[in-house]
Amino acid sequence: SSIKTTHIVSLQDYIKTFKDSSTHPVYLFDGKTISQYPKLAADIYIPKWLNPTSIYLKQFILGPRNSGSPPHFHGQAVNALIYGIKEWYFWKPVNAFFSFSHIMDLKDKVLNTQDVFTKCIQLPGEFVYVPENWGHAVINIEESIGVAFEFW
Asked: Band of the pLDDT at 134, cuts 50, 70, 90?
């Protein structure tokens, strides 16, 4: 069982860990970057059908290969991939659950079971829509950069 922790490191030091051969790399989610860099925010087009005024969380996401998010669920969200490749796993709300274990510890035990409703590969330039309360998990197949938006 792993414990969720927060570490503060420079971006330069974080990127150095990408070359680490660790089987448990850290996945970065940052809720401040998009609002702190107006040029980055201006480059992000949010389709009108998402009702951009209802967005309550904007996250910049960066992760090395084999990092990712363990199973969890929340309100509806859209994830846009800028660079890399991600593998997504989805569970219907009735089967959704939270885990604080590293995603790679769950790959064989949880992600390849009959309870998984569907899975897909996300490529650069693609959006993945996550419906409200749907369980989901992500593995970065390659180093990945993206943005995520949760909305009402």
From this structure: very high
- Dihedral pair phi/psi, residue 16, rounded to 5°: -60, -30
Do 136 and 79 contact (CB within 8 A), yes or no?
A: no
CB 149 within 8 A of CB 76: no
Q: Rounded to the nearest 5°, which phi and psi values hold at 55?
A: -75, 125
The answer to whether 85 touches 123, Cβ cutoff 8 Å, is: yes
Instruction: Classify 102 as helix, strand or coil.
Output: coil
pLDDT digits (tens, 9 = 90+) for 44-74: 777 777 776 778 888 889 999 988 999 999 9
Estimate to the nearest angstrom the gap between the alpha carbon of 15 and the chain centroid.
17
Q: Rounded to whole angstroms, how far apart are CA atoms 86 and 140?
A: 5
- What are the backbone angles phi and psi of residue 80, rounded to the nearest 5°? -110, 130
Beta strands in 16-54 (DSSP E): 28-30
CB 68 within 8 A of CB 139: yes
